[in-house]
Amino acid sequence: MTSRVVITAGASGIGLGLARRFAAQGDRVAICDSDAAAVADMAKALPDVIAEVADVTDETQMTAFLGRIEAVWGGVDVVCANAGTGGPAGRIEDLDYAAWQACIGVNLHGAFLTCRWAARLMRAQGAGSIIITSSTAGLFGYPLRSPYASAKWALNGLTKTLASELGPAGVRVNAICPGAVEGDRMDRVVAMEAAAGGRSEDTVRASYVTGVSMRTWVNVDDLADMALFLASPAASKVSGQIIAVDGHTDALVTS
């Protein structure tokens, strides 16, 4: 059965991996992303995917993007509130307030705007699956990364609350908590944390492995496998779950 799937921040990283996998199984996919160049590249690589530029923190842009999808499709079956940013690294007393706000804005406010739209349509339909990209940072304390950890803990609370609100209408809401995901984004995070903590990048990178039972990072396909399962009939009774895909993180130790 073909699903209608919307993915935020879908032109690169985890979002692009999700878009590729949903499209590969024959679903209708629409993505937005704030990176115009990445959106253009994706439109060329996946011409059947609706790809538009929109900033998840801008209500006007998101209303326009989501409104166009609603007009074309008439509804939506799966929404992946995937947009996120790592935010600044450092001791809380050294953090800039604007950088804190920007991190909370993308991770939490962007999910709010996306889920608010999805909830309205899915409640009316009496069905749907919302998948929020959280993080293992929403399961542990995360030294030197307080804005990011705070936003991800909030997303887990949002997931639980929306599952309760929307469950009676037949709508499921779950969160995926990735561990350290291979790719350019984590390379930047490692460099940022190394600079903030006065350590080498090799030391920081190693800490992400030693803190995981399976001694491994994860890749985008690991996360896409879980998202496709949560969106499928096989997960018809799975809701309100915060599911780590991380090789089992024991602790986030970065200082």
TrEMBL record:
Protein's name in the database: SDR family oxidoreductase
Organism whose genome encodes this protein: Roseovarius pelagicus
Keyword vocabulary terms for this entry: Oxidoreductase
SUPFAM superfamilies xref list: NAD(P)-binding Rossmann-fold domains
Lineage per the UniProt record: Bacteria, Pseudomonadati, Pseudomonadota, Alphaproteobacteria, Rhodobacterales
PROSITE patterns: ADH_SHORT
Family the UniProt entry places it in: Belongs to the short-chain dehydrogenases/reductases (SDR) family.
